[in-house]
């Protein structure tokens, strides 16, 4: 009944997604089902979404996972959390969101930065990654532009949220890499690196906390 009240006429597949913990803002806000923010990434709308989401995740995720499994898990699930929280704040309450696209888009800035570095150190390997990156970036841009005007099935607001998360993680990890590799020798530049790195992670934490407060306190009071 909760789903019908907010979404109007629903089909059986909407009900299946709702039962299996799709991100649904009224259930998160009023029934405090916060697990939907992450559990929704384990479900897909159909075989097409399942294939494309997991193809992109396999191509982008394994690179980050090879660097660090902890880094992959943190970036992937934090991006999903940020994307779905922003969607709860700004999208239509009737929006049902599923899939791993948020986590994948969160990994994208890290892979783009790695590709830029790879062009200098290993141009042959960079060439093999270029076409996939171009395809992934263009497909995401086109899909989200279409979603703004027509495709209700694509939650473009959540994609904006996870991209913000990915860019903040990029700033943090890149500054950390610079510190570890000793690219900056000057003390003032080292200090600047630490400031950028800490600012990025603090901004990410405040971004998450502010959206959690909006979802849990402000929206129920409206």
3D structure, described in words:
This protein is mainly alpha-helical. It contains 10 helices and 2 strands; from the N terminus they run ααβααααβαααα. It has helices spanning 2-7, 12-19, 25-30, 36-39, 47-67, 69-90, 101-121, 123-149, 156-181, 187-221; strands at 23-24, 96-97. Strands 1-2 form a two-stranded antiparallel ribbon. α6 (69-90) crosses α7 (101-121), α6 crosses α10 and α9 (156-181) packs antiparallel against α10. The longest helix is centred in the C-terminal third of the chain and has 35 residues, at 187-221. Mean pLDDT is 78; it is low at 1-10.
Quick recap:
This protein has helices spanning about 1-5, 10-20, 25-30, 35-40, 45-65, 70-90, 100-120, 125-150, 155-180, 185-220; strands at about 25, 95. It is an all-alpha fold and about 220 residues long. The model is unreliable at about 1-10 (pLDDT under 50).
**Radius of gyration of CA atoms, rounded to a whole number:** 19 Å
Instruction: Say how many strands there are.
Output: 2
What's the overall geometry? globular
Order of helices and strands: HHEHHHHEHHHH
Strand ordering within the main sheet: 1-2
The secondary-structure class comes to: mainly alpha
- Biggest beta sheet summary: 2 strands, antiparallel
By DSSP (H or I, 4+ residues per run), the number of helices equals: 10
The end-to-end distance, rounded to whole angstroms, is 21 Å
| Share in β-strands | under 5%
């Amino acid at each position: 009944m909760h789903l019908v009240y907010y979404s109007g006429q629903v089909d059986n597949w909407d009900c299946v997604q709702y039962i299996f913990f799709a991100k649904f803002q009224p259930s998160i806000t009023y029934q405090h089902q916060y697990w939907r923010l992450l559990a929704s990434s384990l479900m897909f709308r159909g075989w097409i979404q399942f294939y494309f989401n997991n193809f992109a995740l396999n191509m982008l995720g394994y690179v980050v996972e090879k660097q660090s499994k902890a880094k992959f898990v943190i970036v992937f699930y934090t991006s999903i959390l940020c994307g779905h929280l922003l969607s709860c704040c700004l999208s239509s309450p009737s929006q049902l969101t599923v899939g791993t696209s948020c986590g994948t888009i969160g990994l994208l800035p890290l892979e783009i930065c790695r590709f830029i570095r790879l062009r200098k150190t290993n141009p042959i390997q960079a060439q093999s990654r270029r076409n996939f990156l171009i395809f992934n970036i263009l497909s995401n841009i086109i899909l989200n532009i279409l979603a703004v005007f027509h495709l209700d099935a694509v939650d473009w607001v959540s994609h904006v949220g996870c991209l913000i998360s990915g860019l903040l993680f990029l700033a943090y990890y890149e500054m950390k890499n610079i510190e570890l590799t000793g690219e900056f020798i000057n003390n003032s530049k080292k200090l600047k690196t630490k400031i950028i790195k800490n600012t990025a992670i603090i901004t990410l934490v405040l971004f998450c906390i502010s959206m959690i407060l909006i979802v849990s306190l402000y929206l129920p009071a409206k």
